[in-house]
Specification:
93 residues, 1 helix, 5 strands
């Protein structure tokens, strides 16, 4: 299944376009674009026991080529933290 969506996203204060799909059991991939950023998000999960799953999360950010390496790395760390924060919000009840 492939999901495409777009619209204003409050967290980024910008339009967000996503193309998201599952690959095999338990692997989600998502290409996300907003402002001048392109990010790929990976989420994988596997059942551990009844009612419990283990989840892995990562986000890759592309350097637009305009930033020195140190700044690009810092921006990537900020991107990862933001992606993880929004992912973690899915589990808040």
């Amino acid at each position: 299944m492939i999901q495409r969506q777009g619209g204003f996203f409050d967290y980024y204060q910008a339009d967000l376009k996503t193309v998201t799909w599952y690959t095999g059991p338990g692997i989600l991939l998502s290409k996300q674009q907003y402002l001048d950023q392109v990010r790929y998000e990976f989420i994988a999960n596997t059942p551990v026991e009844d009612g419990i799953s283990r989840v892995w999360h990562a986000a890759l950010s592309l350097n637009t080529g305009n930033l020195p390496e140190a700044e690009a790395r810092e921006r990537a760390h900020v991107e990862q933290a933001g992606a993880l924060e929004t992912f973690a919000a899915d589990f808040e009840i």
